[in-house]
């Protein structure tokens, strides 16, 4: 087995007061920030709009942010992320836009974002023409029927003209979607099976815009509140479940110490997110649940070694046994946490805006989760065990007074308070 430390003998418990003091300072600062500044809640909790937009050509994220700023959005609150793997042209052209809610009606922000992008990237020069990259087949068919460039209403039976224009409109939209969701040129649409003059009709009815809204999702404040409440309930239930398991598998004292360490990790992470105003989204909740399990696992490894040592070294001081258990598992703790930390650090540096909340929560959680297993859970277990040991001797004299008949022990024998008659000599 790989070991980073050869026979370590660090006095962790001797520095327990300093560790606890540091944690208290961080927790107090975080709690004050949570009360005074609150949290930077993302769209998932505060409500807002999530849109996937595909552009005709690879977009510049700074230009998109500038367009939304001119449209009335605060740049710091806007999240822009490439959605594809950049393996194809369409992937490079697609971005995910996440904005807070600014309009009262459900579709207000969707319209506002679309108009902001159109103004910046250039709306159709002719307001009577439809943007082929934004409209659906029904709107296009209606517009073609109104113009009736081919005079189909005059030459075809009633209703046939509408069906023919609708068939062509469906063909145009299907061609657009097959090309990745955007068209750069109307002439790229094949006219097989249609009157060649349909190309002229299409040019009079529509024009090519800069982007296409692939999908739009609206999250209302009420939904965000419900998600927040569910996240809190899930975290509490997870802590209670682990407390019961550890109490069953070890002792309830071990469970309490482990849960206190987990609560410490959660509060520290929340406090730092409040202090630095990092955004809290649904991915943050996933990271918190991961953190709870990770921190608990690290604590159980140390507690299991403490239990093994106590079984073998009953006469040794509890502080010495606990400190030795921490040192014996130190290599495992550092290697496991260190490798996980490297992976999380890569997410922080290269994961982008969408994974920022998740990766930062894991980074802070792993650091403080490893720290709390050594500096919080173990001292609490030690102090509580000592408290119980101090109370136990007081119960021993009370047991002795309950013996009946004033029995006394002399040497290894039990003798009565009455004088025993001597046996007759033979």
Automatic annotation (TrEMBL):
Where is this protein chiefly located? membrane
Which keywords are on file for this protein?
Cell membrane, Membrane, Protein transport, Translocation, Transmembrane, Transmembrane helix, Transport
What is this entry's stated membrane topology?
Multi-pass membrane protein
Stretches for region Disordered: 396-426
Q: Where does the record place the Protein export membrane protein SecD/SecF C-terminal domain?
A: 209-386
Give Gene Ontology CC terms.
plasma membrane
Record GO terms (molecular function): protein-transporting ATPase activity
Fill in the subunit field for this protein: Part of the essential Sec protein translocation apparatus which comprises SecA, SecYEG and auxiliary proteins SecDF-YajC and YidC. Forms a complex with SecD. Part of the essential Sec protein translocation apparatus which comprises SecA, SecYEG and auxiliary proteins SecDF. Other proteins may also be involved.
Protein name (record): Protein-export membrane protein SecF
């Amino acid at each position: 087995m790989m070991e980073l430390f050869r026979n370590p003998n660090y006095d962790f418990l001797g520095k327990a007061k300093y560790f606890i003091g540091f944690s208290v300072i961080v927790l107090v600062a975080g709690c004050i920030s949570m009360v005074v500044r609150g949290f930077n809640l993302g769209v998932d909790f505060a409500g807002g709009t999530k849109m996937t937009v595909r552009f005709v050509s690879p977009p510049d994220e700074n230009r998109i942010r500038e367009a939304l700023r001119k449209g009335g959005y605060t740049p710091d609150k806007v999240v822009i992320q490439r959605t594809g793997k950049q393996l194809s042209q369409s992937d490079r052209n697609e971005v995910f836009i996440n904005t807070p809610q600014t309009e009262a009606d459900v579709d207000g922000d969707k319209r506002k974002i679309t108009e902001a992008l159109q103004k910046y990237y250039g709306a159709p020069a002719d307001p009577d023409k439809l943007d082929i990259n934004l409209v659906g087949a029904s709107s296009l068919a209606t517009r073609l029927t109104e113009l009736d460039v081919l005079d189909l209403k005059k030459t075809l039976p009633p209703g046939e003209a509408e069906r023919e224009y609708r068939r062509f409109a469906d063909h145009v939209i299907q061609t657009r979607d097959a090309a990745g969701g955007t068209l750069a040129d109307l002439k790229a649409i094949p006219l097989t099976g249609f009157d060649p003059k349909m190309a002229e009709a299409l040019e009079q009815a529509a024009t090519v815009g800069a982007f296409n809204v692939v999908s739009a999702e609206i999250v209302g404040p009420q939904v965000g509140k419900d998600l927040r409440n569910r996240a809190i309930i899930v975290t509490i239930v997870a802590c209670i479940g682990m407390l019961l398991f550890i109490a069953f598998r070890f002792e309830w004292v071990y469970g309490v110490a482990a849960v206190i360490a987990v609560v410490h990790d959660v509060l520290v992470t929340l406090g730092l997110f409040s202090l630095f105003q990092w955004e809290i989204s649904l991915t943050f909740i996933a990271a918190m649940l991961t953190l709870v399990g990770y921190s608990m696992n690290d604590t159980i490894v140390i507690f299991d070694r403490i239990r093994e040592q106590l079984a073998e070294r009953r006469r040794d001081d509890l502080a010495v046994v606990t400190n030795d258990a921490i040192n014996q598992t130190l290599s495992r703790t550092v290697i496991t946490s260190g490798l996980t930390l490297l992976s999380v650090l890569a997410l922080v540096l290269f994961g982008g805006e969408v994974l920022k909340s998740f990766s930062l929560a894991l980074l802070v959680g792993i650091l403080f989760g490893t720290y709390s297993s050594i500096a919080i859970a173990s001292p609490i277990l030690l102090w509580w065990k000592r408290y119980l040991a101090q109370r136990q001797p007081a119960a021993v004299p009370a047991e002795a007074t309950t013996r009946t008949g004033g029995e006394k022990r002399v040497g290894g024998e039990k003798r009565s308070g009455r004088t025993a008659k001597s046996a007759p000599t033979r």
